[in-house]
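Subject: Sanity check before I submit

Could someone independently write out the structure tokens for this chain? I want to compare against mine line by line before I put it in a report. The sequence has 276 residues.
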Amino acid sequence: MLPAMTRVLRLSVVLVATIVALPVSARQANDTPEQAIRRLVTAMYSNDVAAYNAVTIEHPRRTRLTTGGRVNAEALQRLKGDPEGLQIRQLRPWLLKGQPVPTPAPDPADGTTALYLVAHQGSPMVVALARQAGNWKIDLRWWIAMADLMSGPPAKDDRPSIAIRSMLAAMLRLDRRQAAKFITDARAIDALFLGAPSSREPSGVLDATVMEMPLVEVGAGEFFRTPSGRVVEGGSTDDRKVMVGFFGPVEMPFVLRRIGGDWRVVAEPYFALMLQ
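---
Independent answer below. Compare away.
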């Protein structure tokens, strides 16, 4: 059986993949994240790609999630008969440029982001949203990244991803010497291990979650708050990039720098997120 946190993310992809293209529905305004999420789930059960596209952020590989499914009439009927059966839980504050936004806000600015955990009929999924052109839209990037992981292991030449996973795996083994190989400054090892447990977690759940965590490189104009409280902006140069993973339902940002041809992670107290 999959670890619980990993299962949350995998079910996100499985649920999304229950759609195939049908020329239905026009675009509707999304006044709140909850309304956007409800439209998303309805579109998925209805097999309505037009409605699905209207409530999601455009992505060149969006069809990766909308191919090969079918209408789920039973789930759709249950959703219509019991709207409250769709459970929507906010995972973190709304953020604008990395700073909390009062929730609910009557008219949040474009660029505001949100993160929710959604469940219906026992199938939870992590839903990331962003405010665009006055509407809340679903950000599909982590679902696409998870779908790629389900298709096979990470590419061997994906050095930034390998550095992140190797560092976290060494941390979970409480192997400070190995973890130090993957950070930008070995002198920051104490900061990296801040909040570390006294003994290794024995079940292997966290280790599996590290390997199955979807990672997305984020761009300029996107802001995330690190475990230390520092706000970082995305965007890539030859020697810097920012990646964000979903460690189960927990958003985990990483700043990487290229040193001597290798990508290394700027140390942050990641145990604060991994042990939530």
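---
OP: Matches mine. For the report I'm noting this point. Residues 4-147 form one domain.
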